[in-house]
Fold this protein.
Amino acid sequence: PIFQDSNGLAVKFFLQKDLPDAIQAELCETITALGGRVEAKVPRQGYILVQPGTNEGERLRVCWNSAERPERHFVPYTYVEACKIAGMLLKQIFVENGAPILMHIHPSIANVNAQAALGQRIMHCGGDPHASEQSARVILADPHNEVFQHLVKSYQGVPDKFVESYLWVKKCIEKSMVIYTPQVYKNPGGRRPGEERTQFTEQDEEHLCTWIAAKIPYKETGGRTGNRLYQQLCEQSNDPDYAWVTRHTWQSWRERYKKNAARLDIVIAAIVERKKPAPGEKGQYGYVRQPEAKPKRSRKKHTKVLGANDELDEGVGLPVHAPVIVQMQGDVPGHSLQAENYPHLPAPAAVASTSVRPSPAEEEMDEEGSEWTVRIGDAEPPQWAKRKQSEELVPQSVQKRARTSEHTPDLSELNHQNVVTTIADIHVIDQGIRDIAREFRFTIEEVQEYYDRCGEMGRTRLRFQKMREQLANFEDESDQ
């Protein structure tokens, strides 16, 4: 039976008198069934079952709790059921000098049910989980919460105060004893007592001066007290010729020079005078390989050969073309168009269908890029001053760059007859747009925008005619 000691004697229990009768009857039945005995008076040795938080429970604890009776324990009445579930008599391990160990359940344990279960387990084993953080001896927190490490650092210097994980309670119950997380020694750094420091020898200083003389031969260039010079020195430790660098750290080598610079500079100057290195020699500190020069990229000039029909009208933004007499095959909707003649425009010129390939001398001149020569005396002009063949064959007016338009076709892919017909069509459309804008008093841009969307001249004329009629019929507020 659970409630019997090693000698086979029954464990004694005393029940708080004001417990409900149903609870008392159930407790008596369970205790008797598990081998225990319920006493009518407070026993010298045994368990007093109380209801935590009640006046009677506190009165019993004050009156009967004594250091002379360490084997008299005060536990909640749920202790009986807990022992039955555990299958053993739970020992009162969280008791010290006859008093319960004060514990604080930190809010980092967010689960309320977990907090309640943890508190019950602590009380069943004799502890008090209701202490504040300041008065508690043990603070139970969630080790996975960032607050845990903050608590450890805050109380690591406070004697007799421990920060433990919530799993610590279960471990103590399983081992039937309280074991706090031990403190381990962490080396604070520095030399241990009695440990001697590696002293600098004359040979160490000689090696150091040789290194500095090779890397920074002239002090005025700077860098002798920087960190990188001595870090590079210690990086040579794998080289058998630099095995001596392992005797000291790079900080020690730096401090050695820094504190003895006046004396060591004389030694370094003597080494430099003997070897006479030139400033910027390969291997000296602070000098790196000059980056490779990027090749210059020359831009070739391309002359676009245009037709004479592509001169621009700066006023409207549409191409102005030479006068063309065209017999239209059909009428544009909304218009009665016939062939027109424009005597004020220049005569048409032939369209160059292909461009002339430059000569090898001209291509070579383009590849030279920035190599420009000048004419000296009566000598022949340089290549760049000569007019290219493509420029000689194309009139000056043709070399103007044409402004592109959304409705301008690609003239280079048409033959001469198609080019002339297309230009005439574009000019007729442009004139029709101007006529509509002038007749119905709208801007050219508005008419052009709508025509670009629908693509029909008759539909465009009809729309702006209706719009003008609607505006004419619109009543003004003053006429009402």
In short: The CA atoms of residues 70 and 79 lie 18 Å apart. Residues 308-356 have pLDDT under 50 and may be disordered. The beta strands are 12-15, 37-39, 46-50, 72-76, 95-96, 99-100, 103-105, 138-141, 162-165. Residues 416-440 form the longest helix (25 residues).
